[in-house]
Amino acid sequence: MGGKEEVSQVLAAKFAVIFPHLDERQRRLLMAAEARALGHGGIRVVARAAGVREATVSLGVDELEAGAEPLGRARRPGGAASGPPMWIRGCARR
After folding, report:
1. How far apart, in whole angstroms, are the C-alpha atoms of residue 58 and residue 52?
2. How many Cβ atoms from other residues are within 10 Å of residue 74's Cβ?
3. Distance CA 13, CA 84 (A)
4. What whole-number distance in Å separates Cα of residue 68 and Cα of residue 44?
5. What single string gives the DSSP state of each residue in 22-36?
6. Is residue 83 classed exposed, middle or buried when 0-12, 13-18 and 19+ CB atoms within 10 A define those classes?
7. What is the mean pLDDT of residues 48-64?
8. First and final CA of the chain: distance in angstroms?
9. CA-CA-CA-CA dihedral for 22, 24, 26, 30, to nearest 10
10. What is the rounded distance in angstroms from the CA atom of residue 5 to the CA atom of residue 22?
11. Where are the alpha helices (DSSP H) in the chain?
12. Please, which residues have CB within 8 angstroms of residue 12's CB and are 6 or more apart in sequence?
């Protein structure tokens, strides 16, 4: 039993560092990948380490196995400003 507890602690530390930088879908896919790597019982170990329901990890596993294409961009196109930076444009108005 000590092995799973140690794995759970390592996963919890990893998730605490990376989760704030991921959106919900990315978190599910990361948890799913970890669960698959652990094999039998991995969903339960990962769910406990991440503090989520097992169904959430299972949904991520289903998404991975479905082989859906990555969403691509994290941001919508057209976000880059054309022209000088905002701070320069703001000064030009005064």
Report:
1. 11
2. 8
3. 42
4. 24
5. S-HHHHHHHHHHHHH
6. exposed
7. 96
8. 68
9. 100
10. 25
11. 2-18, 24-38, 42-50, 54-66, 86-93
12. 49, 50, 51
Amino acid at the residue 81: A
The position carrying tokens 């507890």 is 5
Q: What pLDDT digit, counting tens, does each position of 21-40 carry? A: 999 999 999 999 999 999 99
Sketch the domain layout of the chain as residue ranges: 2-66
Joined together, the tokens standing for residue 6 give 């140690």
Round to whole Å and give the CA distance between 61 and 7: 19
- Say which residues have a Cβ less than 8 Å from residue 30's Cβ, sequence separation at least 6: 15, 18, 22, 60
Residues in the chain: 94
* Position 75 pLDDT exceeds 90: no
